[in-house]
Design brief:
Distance between the termini: 19 Å
Strand content: over 45%
Radius of gyration: 18 Å
Number of strands: 16
CATH class: Mainly Beta
CATH superfamily: monomeric porin ompg
Amino acid sequence: MTDNEGTTTMITRTGTVAKSIAGAMALAFLAGPAAAGGLKDDPAPGGRMLAWSASFALTNDYVFRGITQSAERPAVQATLDVTYGMLYAGAFVSNVDFGGNLAVAELTFIAGVKPVVGPVSFDFGVIYYTYPGANDASNAELDFVELKAAASVAPWKGGTVGVAAFWTPEHTGETGDVWTLEGTIAQELPSIHGIGVSFSALVGYQHGNDISYFNALGTDDYMYWNAGLTFAFHERLSVDLRYWDSDLDVCQSIGKVGACDARFVATAKATF
């Protein structure tokens, strides 16, 4: 769902906010993968199924594309997802801290379609990141829209491999058009005393074409990655333990706001 402003603002989302996707609803954990689960189904016209789910999460640090969105402090988050056949829509909300009272909350909306062709599952969507009541630094708009195109396959039992591309014509903080590419892998592991276990990892690359992006990050591109385990204690309760890092180093001198160095993130989540 996420990152943010001024100079510190650009250093947050996009690694620039100074957000997945993921994202991130990119919004979940394809950077740390989160599955909806516990869906409630109702027959819909035309034989399609209308399904929805909601979740609440508590994390020790809200990290989006390798950069903290909460100044390395805890964040409370919630999501709402609705599907109708191959169509989907959702919303994500979290507290954020970009320094200087730039913004205190992020609200992300996503909608798209997920067609399946043979063994390949596609995902074409649009994501809108907004920061209600934000004090946009130097009149630089924090809100931005991002387009997403992704594909994934399950080449072996319990395993999934995917790639995704994101593009925005005007990144947060008005830092120009930005491309983001991500590769993901997930694998179900043997359960431990009835507790489901899965491994997932992500590698991402982001590139900005505008000088304002370079000024915010000190570079026109960067890489980020994560890897971790998700433990499902119940169909509705899970804990994700994840290691994050990036090859950025400029933002580390700013302190907790916009920090992009290595860290471990723990997230507890309940889905309804």
